[in-house]
Design brief:
Blueprint: H1 2-28, E1 38-42, E2 51-54, E3 60-63, E4 67-70, H2 76-87, E5 98-103, E6 108-113, E7 119-122, H3 129-135, E8 148-151, E9 160-163, H4 165-171, E10 185-188, E11 207-212, E12 218-221, H5 228-234, E13 247-252, E14 257-262, H6 264-270, E15 283-286, H7 291-321
Length: 322
């Protein structure tokens, strides 16, 4: 019994700690208003005061009656509270204000190079490097994803870093990719012989991205009923180094991707083709077999080739003797 009495307060403390962590995480995810953001402020109690304003370089916006008020560096709730506090001085009837972000211009990233839609992209929360490139229409044919360049705009402005995005795609692990920051520029280079090539026919069509151990990595159009096998066929099939048991499909979502591993080798052994559906915006990555398995496979095929040659030679000798 004493033990259970002691566990009560301890459990209560643990619950409080968990709630505190959840609250801290929720606060961390709150959007902080920045310079160049476009904000709509509305007062349901007096709609004629509703206005749309851009956050100036000094971090302030202009509102009717109130005049200039600080916005940059505040959350939406904080700005709403400050606006109400200022406007009630002039109009006591107004007790509520609603703030909406129309354009997240402070969270912008520039994408250029071998992508289908180069330009400026804004986000409420900037996603990972691959999601940003995919937002820009995805890489064009000839894009060198192993040498993507990021140019910093804030801390360490002008600093350049080269990122091997191909490796991240093949492993399905984006956690080691450098986080993009507001104002950064992403450059996707192309092979010199192919930089001016590439077709723009796919711009108006639904596409998937196919990389890794396929004959022709790139961007391919898909229909609503397309399957993984059809997409792999479009990419020319897999290479002899492909690991068919661990094909990854990065299922495109609004702000992030979930990874599904499809064992095509198992389907082949059962004699039924994989009918895993592939949709627009998905990314298919065919990984390379591990070194050990690849060596065993090569050794096995070489041994079988050698053995068949020896057996054939023995049969030839016996035939000549006869």
């Amino acid at each position: 019994m004493p033990r259970s009495r002691r566990s009560g307060p301890v459990g209560f403390v643990i619950i409080l700690i968990c709630l505190g962590l959840f609250a801290a995480q929720a606060v961390a995810l709150e959007y902080v208003i920045g310079v160049d953001d476009v904000i709509r402020v509305s007062f349901w109690q007096q709609p004629d005061l509703n206005t749309v304003s851009r956050v100036r370089q000094d971090g302030r916006i202009s509102l009717p009656v109130v005049g200039d008020i600080q916005a940059a560096g505040l959350t939406i709730d904080q700005l709403e509270e400050n606006i109400v506090g200022e406007i009630t001085i002039y109009n006591a009837i107004i007790s509520q204000a609603r703030v909406e972000i129309i354009e997240y211009n402070s969270q912008r990233v520039f994408v250029t190079g071998e992508v289908y839609r180069p330009g400026k992209y804004t986000f409420e929360f900037i996603p990972n490097l691959w999601e940003v490139i995919r937002e820009a229409g995805g890489p064009r044919e000839g894009a060198m994803l192993g040498e993507v360049t990021i140019i910093r705009a804030q801390e360490g402005a002008g600093e350049k870093m080269t990122v091997n995005l191909s490796q991240a795609l093949e492993s399905g692990d984006f956690s080691r990719l450098p986080a993009l920051k507001p104002g950064d520029t992403v450059i996707v280079p192309g092979r010199p012989s192919e930089a001016a090539g590439g077709t723009i026919d796919m711009l108006g069509r639904s596409v998937v991205f196919v990389y890794g151990q396929v004959v022709r990595p790139g961007v391919y159009p898909v229909e609503e009923t397309s399957t993984l096998l059809q997409v792999l066929t479009q990419a020319g099939g897999v290479t002899d180094q492909a690991d068919l048991s661990k094909i990854r499909v990065l299922v495109g979502q609004e702000r992030t991707s979930s990874v599904v591993v499809v064992d095509v080798q198992e389907h082949i052994s059962r004699g039924d083709p994989p009918d895993f559906p592939v949709h627009a915006g998905d990314t298919v990555v065919v990984p390379k077999r591990s070194g050990l398995w690849h060596n065993v496979w090569n050794g096995t095929t070489q041994f079988l080739t050698f053995t068949s040659g020896v057996v054939g030679f023995i049969y030839l000798i016996d035939w000549l003797r006869d």
